[in-house]
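Exercise 7b. Backbone tokens:
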């Protein structure tokens, strides 16, 4: 009798989640397409460069380790900074800035600095995004009316009443505004439709409907200028690298690096809360972003960050592996190669409407109210950071926010308590506890100098955890002055 033959176990499929990832990649592609084009136009660069950055975000950054499900591409959060850089240094310098940003991110990831970006105050990051959102909204309101926006964020906001008057007197501007407003209305209303209809992303649906309306009604509205993908890609020449000797350009590179890295890693933390898969390796993710930005810089394209809108769409669409974000880059490449002329049909006010909606979502209205009730200091940092970005510029506004955060932390860490015990006879006993730093020095000295000059004092420092140099010198000088009046010398108990 022949022994039974056990059939060999079939090998596991090479791509077990291909169906889910393929479906998710199409959703992310449809979300990314209007945003890539809109961010590029708002940044003052050819629309095709937004697609290039989205393609690199999928095919380069998407393949690298770090975060498995978050998606990278051109971000609304960098629109203001890119526009300022292009306006000041010219388009050829953008490639140098983005390349240098990518190399710095690679270096920081190699040095394992990625985890330290989590130490940046959330209030500073939210204030940064709120300031960016305000500037985007103000600037895109001009674009929606077909008007030229002022250069600075503050001028954009202050000039809105005059722009409204100009728009009312122009039929062309009113038509353009109607298209932009209609785009926003469609995007807001789209979320209330049945789930089956919402399978098409709201931004894409709004842009398609706006395009059809403009074509059907023959509205006198400006559309996207298209030169072709290959002609838009302009690698930086040797002359552009000469700008690295300019301290202002170096400051811009530092701003790009700080903001792009912080936004990407905060996005990674948010995406990790949306799924139960592998967690983000922050240093590897920072290097992946750096590699993508280095490639974008070589191609003269826009900088990239991880984008929470695309990333959350990827998770919600059922993505299981990084294949979904790689495939979304492939779909962007196919569109740019086969259908570039379709971009020329898109009305500019429709893209402005998409970005107004995106800018509005960057402003954490509920977060500010919650912070004000629970942590007013953090709420103040958020608001001051946002206002500084609008009033000055992106880089200096973020520095103001970081400085305020450090000062607040130092102030809270230097909490000190001075307790005075006076029994009416004998020496007065003063006990210091906590952390005595220069920030609390005026309060400490005021209390000590108010003690009776003709009584001996015992100053107990054993309850202090920290006594900085400025406080130590000030206490010693006070003790000398108090004893100089002929009173018994101040007795100080040493720090533990």
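Sequence design result:
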């Amino acid at each position: 009798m022949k022994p039974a033959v056990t059939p060999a176990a079939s090998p596991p499929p090479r791509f077990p989640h291909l169906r889910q990832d393929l479906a998710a990649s199409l959703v992310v592609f449809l979300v990314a397409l209007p945003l890539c084009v809109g961010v590029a136009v708002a940044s003052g660069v050819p629309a095709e460069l937004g697609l290039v950055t989205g393609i690199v975000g999928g095919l380069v950054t998407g393949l690298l380790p770090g975060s498995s499900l978050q998606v990278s591409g051109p971000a609304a959060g960098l629109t203001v900074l890119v526009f300022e850089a292009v306006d000041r240094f010219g388009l050829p310098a953008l490639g140098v800035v983005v390349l240098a940003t990518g190399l710095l991110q690679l270096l920081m990831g190699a040095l394992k600095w990625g985890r330290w970006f989590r130490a940046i105050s959330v209030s500073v990051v939210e204030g940064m995004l709120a300031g960016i959102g305000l500037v985007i909204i103000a600037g895109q309101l001009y674009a929606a009316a077909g008007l030229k926006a002022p250069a600075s964020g503050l001028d954009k906001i202050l000039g809105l009443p005059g722009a409204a008057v100009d728009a009312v007197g122009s039929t062309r501007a009113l038509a353009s505004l109607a298209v932009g407003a209609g785009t926003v209305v469609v995007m807001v209303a789209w979320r209330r439709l049945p789930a089956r209809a919402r399978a098409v992303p709201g931004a894409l649906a709004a842009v398609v409907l706006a395009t059809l309306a403009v074509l059907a009604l023959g509205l006198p509205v400006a559309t996207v200028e298209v030169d072709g993908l290959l002609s838009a890609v302009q690698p930086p020449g040797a002359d552009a690298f000469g700008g690295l000797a300019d301290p202002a350009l170096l400051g811009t590179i530092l701003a790009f690096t700080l903001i792009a890295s912080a936004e990407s890693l905060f996005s990674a933390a948010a995406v990790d809360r949306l799924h139960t898969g592998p967690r983000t390796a922050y240093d590897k993710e920072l290097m992946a972003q750096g590699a993508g930005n280095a490639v974008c810089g070589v191609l003269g394209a826009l900088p990239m960050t991880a984008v929470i809108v695309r990333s959350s769409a990827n998770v919600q669409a059922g993505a299981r592996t990084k294949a979904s974000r790689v495939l979304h880059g492939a779909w962007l490449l196919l569109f740019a190669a086969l259908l570039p002329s379709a971009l020329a049909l898109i009305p500019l006010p429709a893209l402005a409407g998409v970005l107004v909606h995106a800018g509005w979502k960057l402003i954490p209205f509920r977060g500010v109210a919650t912070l004000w009730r629970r942590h007013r200091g953090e709420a103040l940092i958020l608001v001051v950071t946002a206002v500084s970005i609008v009033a000055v510029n992106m880089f200096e506004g973020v520095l103001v926010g970081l400085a305020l955060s450090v000062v607040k932390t130092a102030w809270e860490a230097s909490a000190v308590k001075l307790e005075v015990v006076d029994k009416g006879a004998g020496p007065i006993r003063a006990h210091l506890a906590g952390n005595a730093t220069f920030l609390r020095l005026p309060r400490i000295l005021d209390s000590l100098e108010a003690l009776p000059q003709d009584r001996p004092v015992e100053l107990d420092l054993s309850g202090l955890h920290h006594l900085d140099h400025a406080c130590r010198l000030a206490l010693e000088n006070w003790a000398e002055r108090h004893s100089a009046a002929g009173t018994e010398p101040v007795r100080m108990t040493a720090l533990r």
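Instructor comment: The mean pLDDT is 86. The longest strand covers residues 457-467.
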